[in-house]
């Protein structure tokens, strides 16, 4: 709860995405931050295009916009919202039209760079959309009183952003439990089959490099867009509840997300808090979360299967990675992240 030395704040949080309507990590982080702030005694109203999230402890304010170009129209609709009763606006996107001062403090979190994504997303229209969002991110850094990035390399396109506050993970939920570890060697993936998460490439590497040596091994994929028959050894878990996701991390032997771009990569931090070794491609998020590979294994996509096999078959390597993973995960504890945001709010 907020104490007399830390009076309660009224916080307007903005996130187009929420777990109720999207798999994008920004929404999960906004939801977790808002819940933790409420637990500390603050009032949080979360403005989103998505419907309410089951179990949310904050006030949900839906800005529903049917039709196309909803992200841009959502940002424009926020101009009509009266934020004058709030102490803080904390935006995870879509605040670039909020030019005049509306609250004593306006914080913007940069979760990545749309310019980076524009170079990787397929399709001309999606590239154009990402470029437009990239320019909106630059506008947002001018509008906000303070902008923070979730990782140092996220600042590449906005080098004037000085502050880094990482994404946070609830370490009371994501924690190791050796009694639940699967008997068979198990790799866990959280992401999409297609595009930049590269689940399809991981499945191919697993079947090529791991199954011939470890025929009982499993690749469990928390994935909504995988095919009905992804091939031998691959188990598609689909969309999971929070409790089911925690159980999947605790069941696995190693976590792998071979994404070609992550601004941060919340699943890396969740896996580390759960005591899992990390094997990842060297995208900017994985490099930051694993401390440039000191708390995980960074490998190019072509050799990711061999690195996974090494971790699965060498107990000493795996145990050392588990220890470094758990130690590094403390940097991303949700309680510490909220402490940093509270200091930013009060400035």
Number of domains: 2
In terms of DSSP E residues, the strand content is 15-25%
Question: Class of the largest domain, according to the CATH hierarchy?
Answer: Alpha Beta
Main sheet: strand order:
3-2-1-4-5-6-7
- Structural class assignment: alpha/beta
How many strands in all? 13
Mean pLDDT level: 94
Biggest sheet: strands, sense, closure?
A: 7 strands, parallel
Proportion of residues in helical segments: 25-40%
Q: Count the DSSP helices.
A: 11
CATH superfamily descriptor of the largest domain: Glycogen Phosphorylase B
Low-confidence stretches: none
H/E topology pattern: EHEEHEEHHEEEHEEHEHEHEHHH
Distance between the termini: 20 Å
Rg, alpha carbons: 20 Å
| Architecture per CATH nomenclature, i.e. the level-2 architecture of the largest domain | 3-Layer(aba) Sandwich
Keywords: Glycosyltransferase, Transferase
InterPro entries: Glyco_trans_4-like_N, Glycosyltransferase_grp1
Protein name: D-inositol 3-phosphate glycosyltransferase
Domain Glycosyltransferase subfamily 4-like N-terminal: 25-173
What labels describe this entry?
347 residues, alpha/beta, Rossmann fold, 11 helices, 13 strands, globular, transferase, D-inositol 3-phosphate glycosyltransferase, Glyco_trans_4-like_N
């Amino acid at each position: 709860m907020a104490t007399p030395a830390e009076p309660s704040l009224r916080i307007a949080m903005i996130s187009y995405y929420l777990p109720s309507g999207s798999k994008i990590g920004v929404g999960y982080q906004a939801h977790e931050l808002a819940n933790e702030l409420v637990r500390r005694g603050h009032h949080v109203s979360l403005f989103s295009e998505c419907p309410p999230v089951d179990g949310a402890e904050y006030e949900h304010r839906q800005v529903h916009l049917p039709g196309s170009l909803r992200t841009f129209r959502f940002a424009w609709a926020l101009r009509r919202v009266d934020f004058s009763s709030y102490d803080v606006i904390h935006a995870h996107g879509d605040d670039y039209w909020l030019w005049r001062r509306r609250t004593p403090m306006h914080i913007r979190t940069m979760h990545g760079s749309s310019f980076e994504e524009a170079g990787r997303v397929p399709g001309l229209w999606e590239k154009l959309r990402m470029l437009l969002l990239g320019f909106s991110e630059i506008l947002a850094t001018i509008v906000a009183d303070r902008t923070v990035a979730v990782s140092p390399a996220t600042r590449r396109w906005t080098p004037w952003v000085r502050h880094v506050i990482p994404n946070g993970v609830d370490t009371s939920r994501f924690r190791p439990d050796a009694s639940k570890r699967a008997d068979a060697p198990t790799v866990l993936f959280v992401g999409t089959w297609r595009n930049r998460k590269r689940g399809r490439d991981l499945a191919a590497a697993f079947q090529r490099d791991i199954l011939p040596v470890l025929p009982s091994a499993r690749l469990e994929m928390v994935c909504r867009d995988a095919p009905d028959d992804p091939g031998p050894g691959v188990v598609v878990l689909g969309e999971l509840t929070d409790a089911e996701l925690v159980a999947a991390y605790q069941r696995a032997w190693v976590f792998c997300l071979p994404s070609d771009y992550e601004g941060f990569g919340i699943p890396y931090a969740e896996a580390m808090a759960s005591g899992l070794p990390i094997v990842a491609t060297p995208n900017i998020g994985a490099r930051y979360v694993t401390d440039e590979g000191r708390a995980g294994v960074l490998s190019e996509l072509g050799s990711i299967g061999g690195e996974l096999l090494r971790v699965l078959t060498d107990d000493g390597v795996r145990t050392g990675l588990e220890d470094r993973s758990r130690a590094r995960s403390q940097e991303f504890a949700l309680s510490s992240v909220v402490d940093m945001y509270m200091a930013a709010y009060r400035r």
